[in-house]
Amino acid sequence: MRLICELRPCVAFMRRHLFGVSGNGIGIGNVIGNVKATPKRLMSGKTYNVPPSSEFVARVSGIATMAKLPYQDTAEGLDAAFIGVPIDTGTSNRPGTRFGPRQIRAESVMLRSYSATGAAPWESMMVADIGDVNVNLYDLKDACKRIRETYRKVVATGCIPLTLGGDHTIAYPILQAVAERHGPVGLIHVDAHADTGDVTLGSKITHGTPFRRCVEEGLLDCKRVVQIGLRGTGYTPDAYSWSREQGFRVVRAEECWYKSLVPLMTEVRAQMGKGPVYLSFDIDALDPAYAPGTGTPEIAGLTPMQGLEIIRGCRGLNLVGCDLVEVSPPYDTTGNTALTAANLLFEMLCVLPKTKHY
Ligand SMILES: [Mn+2]
């Protein structure tokens, strides 16, 4: 008993000085025991949005924004923003990616402050969740128009969009907006599929065609495009010849098996140079053992470790936008596909140009 009494002043000191507890509460449920939580710990003397820590606020409480960040309506004042694009109307097989953004946000409550790489995004940038594009689920062309117009406004502010998909169709209107601001961009495209189809069932806009449309419109700097993880059965003996003819580098999944992708990313960084780069990561690049919740799975894919190596290998590049697409929650009752997606999105945030590293 005497020992406990002697410890009390010490505990109070730790609360004040180690946990940065101040009088600024964050609303209902912010007092746990005698400890008042604050969403804004003092970091580097700057005030950025800092998600509440699960040390003070229960993970499962609150409205599910990405990484439990504050929500705001527009990208004004932000260095980077998470945006959801909940569509699955471009998909060719299993649907369900319209639920992707919500499930990724729900699983993102496990995210903390720092990456294992030492990256400290909440100390480096103002980041928020700006909600979802108000998509049209009955008209894919109109959905693309709405996405393009929304992203125009986002990139006009200088904010870097980090997109929660949604099927891969969305990369096309996003890249229209991004290229309008930055000119033709380099592309790191991680996927089981090339997504360079032309016309499917009479439609030019589907989740299998975005990058052909992008090439046709001059949105890509084709010598600075790499496609990683491509695999599966093909319609022709060399399914990726069109990509190579455009000048893309194609890295098939077979070339990634049994390997660290750190050396590959050294080459990719050299290929990308200093110009603007967009990162588009289709969760089906990963093996369906790790990410079964997706619409067009292919066996023998990348591991989550290789996914991290690719994203972490983007550090130093002039990234102007990123997306994580094709998460279809109904096909993964465990939630692990969305959990993986949430972590990959966090790692993308961690390699944006402004993110500092310890
Ligand atoms: Mn894809």
TrEMBL record:
Belongs to the arginase family. Agmatinase subfamily. It comes from Tachysurus vachellii. PROSITE patterns: ARGINASE_1 (PS01053), ARGINASE_2 (PS51409). Binds 2 manganese ions per subunit. The keyword Hydrolase applies. Its cofactor is Mn(2+). It comes from the Eukaryota. GO terms for biological process: putrescine biosynthetic process from arginine, via agmatine. Mn(2+) binds at H168, D191, H193, D195, D282, D284. GO terms for molecular function: agmatinase activity; guanidinobutyrase activity; metal ion binding. InterPro entries: Agmatinase-rel, Ureohydrolase, Ureohydrolase_dom_sf, Ureohydrolase_Mn_BS. Keywords: Hydrolase, Manganese, Metal-binding. This is Agmatinase.
